[in-house]
Amino acid sequence: MIVGGKPLRPLRARAERDGVVVIDQRALPHRLVFETLATPHAVHAAIRDMWVRGAPLIGATAAYGLALQMRQDASDRALEEVADLLRLARPTAVNLAWAIQRLLRRLRPLQPAERAAAAWDEADAIAEDDVRCNAAIGRHGLPLLQAVDARKPGPVQVLTHCNAGWLATVDWGTATSPIYQAHAAGLAVHVWVDETRPRNQGASLTAWELAQAGVPHTLVADNAGGHLMQRGQVDLVIVGCDRVTAHGDVCNKIGTYLKALAARDNGVPFYVAMPTSTLDLTLRDGLAEIPIEERSPREVTHLAGRSAAGEVLDVQIAPDGTRAANPAFDVTPARLVTALITEHGVVVPAEAALRGLPLESR
Ligand code: MRU
């Protein structure tokens, strides 16, 4: 995407193949900070601590982490150990395990001396596939927005949760891709941006992204979505996902389920933008089977923000000693999902349709 008139991606492989340059997303929206990750351990820490986040982006970044390891030690043991380390950086988004598996499939049959170049090529391919995939999600999602535009006056009102934008991918985003393509096609679009407590990815990242792209948007507290839907102010919801089961259950950022309930109660279509790298056909029942990441309670009891003096501060919002729980994702049952927007087209959340999707990108 374009930032300050220049094309920018949240992940860029160095031409020397000795590191990847990422945006430290913890500093947004106040500062645009780039960091170079030059070791697999730096990649692991950046994923774990959410310098990079978003399912497709952590998959692509982890792929480069494994490629960096192959420069240092490409033995079978090092390959398996670092694959395990990277896979554990975050448990919920299946794209991470998917990307590592894709590299292992390519590298295991090779001699160690051949692995560094092949690993980097494969990581590049994962990154470029992601860009193509998200652009295709945008093309398939665009008619959904055009249909709303054709039947009512005023802007198409989209509500989104968390950040499933280009910052969460290598480019385009997933949930935002139809929005960007609609905006580029001249459609009037307005986005309701959920703040997305506790880490505020909506307020810090999605609002920043949409502002860079000139897409009209309004930030709302997480609790506002149901009210907006009751008042007819939301035409459709589009969210991203971290893991989708064979039954079509959707795991995404905590709070997504409540939006799906409100959407169902108000007859608002609830779409999930899903690259097939996020589809986990080994699982069926999302509630029972998807591992839900529990993050630090500190993310709930504290907030970061910029003071009037321009200083970025970390402040406590709960009484000293308050116990807090921080499940980072929830599961929206397939019955609440209108459809999944994939790179191959729009599909219903049902096993036959999901198993019928082309296999090559999985
Ligand atoms: O904890 P995060 O910020 O990594 O969670 C991100 C989300 O839940 C996104 O909606 C999901 O990863 C899809 S990103 C295209």
Give a verbal description of the structure:
- By secondary structure, this protein is of the alpha/beta class.
- It folds into two domains: 128 residues, Four Helix Bundle (Hemerythrin (Met), subunit A), CATH 1.20.120; 225 residues, Translation initiation factor eif-2b, domain 2 (Rossmann fold, 3-Layer(aba) Sandwich), CATH 3.40.50.10470.
- The protein is 40% helix and 19% strand.
- It contains twelve helices and 18 strands.
- Strands 8-7-6-9-12-17-18 form a seven-stranded mixed beta sheet.
- The protein starts with a strand and ends in a 7-residue tail after the last helix.
- It binds 5-S-methyl-1-O-phosphono-5-thio-D-ribulose.
- The site of 5-S-methyl-1-O-phosphono-5-thio-D-ribulose (MRU) has 18 residues, from α2 and β11.
Summarize the structure.
By secondary structure, the protein is of the alpha/beta class. It has helices spanning 40-48, 55-72, 76-87, 94-107, 112-151, 177-184, 201-213, 225-230, 256-265, 286-289, 298-301, 351-355, and strands at 2-3, 6-7, 11-13, 20-23, 34-37, 156-160, 189-194, 217-220, 236-239, 243-245, 250-253, 270-273, 279-280, 302-306, 312-316, 329-332, 339-342, 345-347. The strands form 5 sheets. It has a 7-stranded mixed sheet with strand order 8-7-6-9-12-17-18. Strands 13-10-11-16 form a 4-stranded mixed sheet, with helices on one face.
Element layout with pairings:
Layout: E1 2-3, E2 6-7, E3 11-13, E4 20-23, E5 34-37, H1 40-48, H2 55-72, H3 76-87, H4 94-107, H5 112-151, E6 156-160, H6 177-184, E7 189-194, H7 201-213, E8 217-220, H8 225-230, E9 236-239, E10 243-245, E11 250-253, H9 256-265, E12 270-273, E13 279-280, H10 286-289, H11 298-301, E14 302-306, E15 312-316, E16 329-332, E17 339-342, E18 345-347, H12 351-355
Parallel strand pairs: 6-7, 6-9, 7-8, 9-12, 10-13, 12-17
Antiparallel strand pairs: 1-2, 3-4, 4-5, 10-11, 11-16, 14-15, 17-18
The protein binds 5-S-methyl-1-O-phosphono-5-thio-D-ribulose.
5-S-methyl-1-O-phosphono-5-thio-D-ribulose binds next to helix 2 and strand 11.
